[in-house]
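S1.2 Input.
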Amino acid sequence: MVNKLTEKIKIMPSNVDCNSRLGFFDIFALFQNIAVDHSEILNYDQSILTPKGLFWVTSKGRVIIYDRPSTGQYVELSTWPEKPDRIRGRRNYTFEKDGKRIIEASTEWAVIDRKKNRLFMLDNLYDESFEFYNEKIFEEPFYRFTSDFKGDPFAEYTVRSIDIDFEGHMNNVAYIRALFGLFSSREIEELNIQDIEYQYKTPCYEGDTLYWYKEPGGSGLEICAKLKDNTVIFLAKLM
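S1.3 Output.
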């Protein structure tokens, strides 16, 4: 089996921002796409898991951006899973251009067993002969958010039909699109974002209104999306 998947892709006009550079949302979308491609090769994509009552979910992640490619440039996008513990695993990603790594990322994920309403044991997911690619992107744990995010929200976002995935939840990548849509292009440039950490806490659905809060934290800007009843849905740190 292919323990590391690499795809050569061309950055298209639909992938870039107002400065003709790969958009932040598109980075996450391309990660999601290649993860699906690799899960099909490894025989645990959603078409295989669904009949078994299983569903894989991403709980948190981190992306470090050294450079963003421009329209028309070719990059090599790679992904591979680390050897998981009993219930959680990490999947890593990189972008390389002209042999130089320009973006790297890692996500933490798990598989839910709907029938038993609990986490599925990941040691049952991979074939015993599978040899994991041995590179780790990050050795350190993911960021721990500690803020209560009190006060007034700085923005609101109503979850739309275009945000919903096949499970009826807001798609993981849609949170990133909504997050960056809260800022003007000038504000995004001024933030000079090179490091993004994020966590998905609780699902939300079409018609829900997300109330967004922000405050300084962890040498960056911490952001939280809540429902009206203060249920925390999504967290992010931009640096």
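S1.4 Remarks. The chain has a mean pLDDT of 94.
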